[in-house]
Amino acid sequence: MSGEAEQLAAALGVPLFATSLHMPRYQEASIGRWKLTRSGFCLDRGYYSGLWAVQGMPVLMRDSGGNGESWETWMSLSPHEIESQELGCRYARGHTVVLGLGMGWVAVNMALNPEVRQVTVIERDPEVIELFRQSQALDGLPAGITDKLRIIEADALEWMPDDDVDFLYADIWRCLEEPQTLDDVRRMQANVRAVVIYFWGQELAINALAEKTTDECHDDGEWVEVVDHVIANRIALPLLFPKDFSYAGMVATVVRQRRARSIPSLE
Q: Options 3.30.420.40, 3.40.50.150, 3.20.20.60, 1.10.1670.10; which CATH number does 82-260 get?
């Protein structure tokens, strides 16, 4: 099927998506109001990149009506979602805490990061935890990697660690840019007290506040200062602000791509 997908992508003039991060071989599974399945061939715009073709994308779905007929996508390993979580995987270190298990993709990639010694995942729904076990996402990983992972059934907004936390990644929301996101992050950080924080959709939250700070920036240096000011003073949390590339530029790119999305969202 991959050959057919490559041919179709080529016919459409769209590249077939691939990532250097680990992609578990998820097995289809279901429990209660949750199921894990795969998509067919589709198109999706990346979080910071352009349009991609995707084949066999793992999708986590929830039965919103409780009747087996109203399934909605809760999470998928689309280009958009992978790229929107990528920095968390790449910059995690030490004792990393993940608030929200989802499909476990972030937690697995953080465990594979040699800078990470332990990954503690907090998930309040026992069915999501069981679905992750059924998915066999950890199959084939070295024992030393799986030993790094610890999953705790608890409420991410209430949980407090029993050890210092070096890096916090939060993703407990159904959609990007939910109005309560920053308040939720502040509440979680008050309990966790991580050295560094990264949360899903952070770039969009930064931009929303930056646009209130300045209407327009023509100078790249000025935009960097605005982003730095927003993180330090408006958000006032120890957010991840990578220095090895233009993070402020990435924020601007994410916003442009977000506005360019013209296909149904796969979030």
A: 3.40.50.150
